[in-house]
Design a protein that fits this description.
824 residues; alpha/beta; 8-stranded mixed beta sheet; 25 helices
Length: 824
């Protein structure tokens, strides 16, 4: 075999080994492995080759091939020639192993802190993508994985022009504690490739702190992602805004003592001698000239510093404010995701929160101030670690952290998995791939009136015998986020026949909310509050609104809400804790949502009172639709409640008298003989006997007002569905609405006078489908009708331009006539 063929096979082997054993390689801190093979030459002789996969050069497990020159005397290799990658001159070295250098020291420092060196995340991402391809294709189809599944081009900032450009530098030679790349990834969703912007702190340089240069670089990299609509990933491990002092001044300043003989009496000011002052660069201090006992002094009023110390104080805070604002804008405009791989302090913690979506590694606390500084402030040792302030046990239950992982390999897997639900750019629709789980299969798990785990409804469940009961989403595709916060609501992302969907569901069981004790307050203790199922509490209402905003911004996910709420918790404490405010935020989030939203009351579910109000389709009629299962209920009050008001005991007695022959006969006899106490006693006895059953009849009568048949007749739902076939129905409905709205918005771009409804009807007319209510037929027409719709878009644009010109001409003519009239 040729050298190229041998090297290609080794690279394939390397990819498989790294993908399969990545956990072990990371855990054992292995940086290099090699194999030795014999290459048969054309004359039949064999030449030994040494194939090395090494991380010592900067890239993890970079492949090199060396040809050995064997000593004819003792058969020991004496020289090694680098034959791959090819070089202009044949490179020879006595040993094919790079010595441990500055780069290895950086990598070791990062590991000692408990994180991964910033540059090594590139290979972790490549490894994760390879694993994802293998899971997607299966072992027998591994050869179908496209080449070069991950490429990264480093971004460099020109300090003179302040322009960000693609370039390269030797790994580990960066002079600021921030690095970034423009990455191209070939994933199952986008085999042709998709781009992201990856930004990372370099914690091995000045502890990853944010100085002016780092702030400028971060701003430009984030701005690039925002302007091009690319997902922006931030790998966070830092020590906050950089602090410092003017070190050159330390050995020069002096103190003007109140009494030089007794320094404990204090001092008046700090000053510089005339000679020291003149040695400093102009403008490095602000000082007042004084003459004291014949000595010229320059009393220090402010220390500014010179060019070498720019970035030690308030200028860093200004930069922190700049990147905080940029991150907030980025969340509004593109997909933002932060991975906290190490401690994140101050502005580092705020950037994670401002980007909203956060994955936290268990050894990566997010804090505003270190525990030692807090202990000094409190005057005693209260806190013993950063985790007490911002570890996952704090940030996951309070909703700052969306997901928690145990190591960086798992963290990168979660990043790649999250991106599988996200479109290529913020302007695109969600990616659709062929699903292994048939969309036409029935939903086997069925919700019940008794409390159950709604995750089983969404993702399916395996029973004790190993038998699988399928759920609503594709098997293995649902991933919950914000699971530690607002536990009475479940949010996450799943795939429905290969279509990414945002999901909000309702916990039906009793859950606990844990409020930890404050170590700074000895009188405090841990509090556990119980929260009922099917009820919105302040935290779960806030969680619902937050999740809806996440789904909308940069993710462009169609949204399905499995609405099974009896209402909001309106007790004194919950009202004080702003349940009303957070309930209103749900309406705000839904009103601004610009992707399809489906409200579905599941079987055995109910939607009551204020809970119905905040998800009613009239909030956003152009994007929202409501459906109810045939076995669901919807109304203002539950049957027992409404019967206490509208079908009271007196009405129930009248019903007994009308329907029960025995009671009816007794009442007729009593009319004829009103003073007969025996009849009155018999009637009361009969009524008491019938009360329980007629209470049930009253409840049933009230319940009949809450069923799907009445909801549809009143037009408050679009249709009544059967749970078993709901998966297939929503698959085609979602696909149809996503594409339909996409083209409707394209029409609106060229003619702003069109409403969404008008633009949608224009799309339907162009496609010419006989039955526009047939979602499957509409999807087929939308898939095949791109050219027709593009032509129609041009026609709409031309008509809009023509109408605008005619309007301007009419206005111009009217203005001319007014001028003529005025001149006369």
């Amino acid at each position: 075999a040729s050298t190229e063929d041998i090297t290609r096979r080794f690279k394939t082997l390397r990819e498989k080994l790294v993908a399969k054993y990545s956990d072990r390689l990371l855990r054992l801190k292995i940086d290099e492995f090699e194999i030795k093979v014999n290459q048969r030459e054309s004359d039949g002789s064999c030449s030994p080759l040494r194939l090395v996969a090494s991380s010592l050069g900067g890239q993890l497990f970079d492949v090199k091939a060396y040809k050995e020159e064997i000593s004819p005397i003792n058969g020991v290799p004496t020289r090694f020639s680098l034959i791959y990658p090819e070089t202009a001159d044949e490179s020879r070295t006595l040993e094919p192993y790079a010595a441990s250098d500055k780069l290895q020291a950086k990598r070791a420092n990062a590991r000692r802190i408990g994180t991964t060196y910033a540059y090594d995340f590139l290979t972790l991402m490549e490894m994760s993508i390879l694993r994802r391809w293998e899971d997607h294709l299966g072992e027998n189809m591994a050869s179908s994985i496209p080449p070069n599944v991950f490429e990264a081009k480093e971004l460099l900032l020109d300090r003179k022009t302040m322009e960000l450009k693609e370039g390269s530098q030797v790994t580990g030679t960066n002079d600021i504690a921030m690095v970034a790349w423009r990455c191209t990834m070939k994933t199952p969703e986008y085999p042709e490739g998709r781009e992201i912007v990856l930004i990372a702190n370099d914690i091995t340089l000045q502890s990853g702190s944010f100085g002016v240069n780092e702030d400028d670089f971060f701003f430009k990299a984030s701005e690039l992602a925002r302007k091009e609509g690319l997902p922006r990933i931030f790998i966070s491990a830092n020590s906050g805004a950089r602090i410092g002092l003017y070190e050159d001044l330390k050995p020069k300043f002096k103190a003007a003592w109140n009494n030089p003989e007794e320094p404990d009496k204090g001092f008046q000011y700090l000053y510089l001698s005339e000679a020291d002052y003149n040695e400093l660069p102009e403008g490095s201090v602000v000082a007042e000239k004084k003459e004291v006992d014949g000595e010229t002094r320059y009393a220090l009023q402010a220390i500014v510093g010179d060019e070498k110390v720019h970035g030690i104080g308030v200028e860093n805070l200004r930069g922190s404010g700049m990147i905080a604002g940029e991150t907030s804008r980025a969340y509004d405009e593109v997909f933002t995701l932060s991975y906290v791989t190490g401690r994140s302090v101050g502005i580092g913690a705020y950037l994670n929160r401002l980007g909203q979506r956060t994955i936290q590694m268990q050894n990566g606390p997010m804090i505003l101030t270190g525990f030692s500084a807090l202990n000094k402030l409190l005057g005693r040792d209260v806190y013993s670690s950063q985790d007490q302030l911002g570890g996952p046990q704090i940030m996951y239950p309070n909703g700052v952290t969306h997901d928690v992982v145990t190591n960086d390999r798992e963290g990168v897997d979660r990043i790649i998995d999250w991106l599988s639900y996200v479109p290529k750019t913020a302007q695109d629709t969600v990616p659709v791939i062929e699903a292994k789980d048939p969309v036409s299969r029935p939903v086997a798990f069925k919700p019940t009136k008794t409390p159950y785990d709604p995750r089983n409804m969404l993702q399916g469940v395996e029973n004790e015998n190993g038998e699988w009961t399928s759920g609503f989403f594709d098997k293995g595709s649902f991933h919950e986020t914000l699971g530690g916060w607002g536990k009475s609501v479940i949010v996450g992302r799943g795939k429905l026949g290969g279509v990414p969907v945002g999901c909000v569901a309702v916990e039906t069981r009793l859950v606990d909310r844990r409020i930890p004790a404050d170590p700074a307050n000895p009188a405090s203790s841990e509090t556990i509050e119980q929260q009922a199922g099917q009820v919105w509490f302040p935290d779960s209402a806030f969680k619902t609104a937050q999740a809806i905003e996440d789904f909308a911004r940069g993710e462009n996910l169609p949204l399905i809400i499995f609405a099974n709420w009896r209402g909001f918790s309106g007790g004194t404490r919950d009202m004080y804790n702003e349940v009303l405010k957070f309930g209103a935020k749900i309406v705000d989030a839904l009103r601004k949502y610009d992707q399809p939203i489906f409200i579905y009351i599941p079987p055995a579910g109910e939607l009551r009172g204020g809970a119905w109000v905040v998800v009613d389709p009239t909030i956003n009629p152009e994007h929202m639709e409501m459906y109810a299962d045939v076995e669901s209920r919807g109304g203002i009050l539950e049957p027992p409640g409404i019967c206490e008001v509208k079908f009271r005991e007196g009405d129930q007695v009248k019903t007994m008298q009308r329907l029960d022959p025995e009671l009816s006969a007794l009442c007729e006899r009593l009319e004829a003989d009103p003073d007969n106490q025996e009849l009155r006693s018999a009637i009361k006895s009969r009524e008491d006997k019938l009360k329980p059953i007629y209470l049930n009849i009253a409840h049933e009568f009230a319940d009949l007002h809450d069923r799907a048949g009445r909801m549809k007749a009143k037009g408050v739902i679009r249709d009544a569905l059967s749970w078993e076939s709901s998966r297939e129905f929503f698959h085609w409905r979602i696909r149809r609405r996503v594409q339909e709205l996409k083209w409707a918005k394209e029409m609106q771009k060229v003619d702003s006078s069109l409403s969404v409804e008008e633009a949608t009807k224009r799309v339907q007319t162009v496609l010419g489908v006989a039955n526009v209510e047939d979602d499957k037929a509409m999807v087929a027409a939308l898939d095949a009708g791109a050219e027709k719709l593009e032509k129609a878009k041009k026609d709409v644009r031309q008509a809009a331009i023509k109408a605008h010109i005619e309007k301007l001409q009419a206005e111009l003519t009217a203005s001319s006539k007014e001028l003529e009239t005025a001149s006369i």
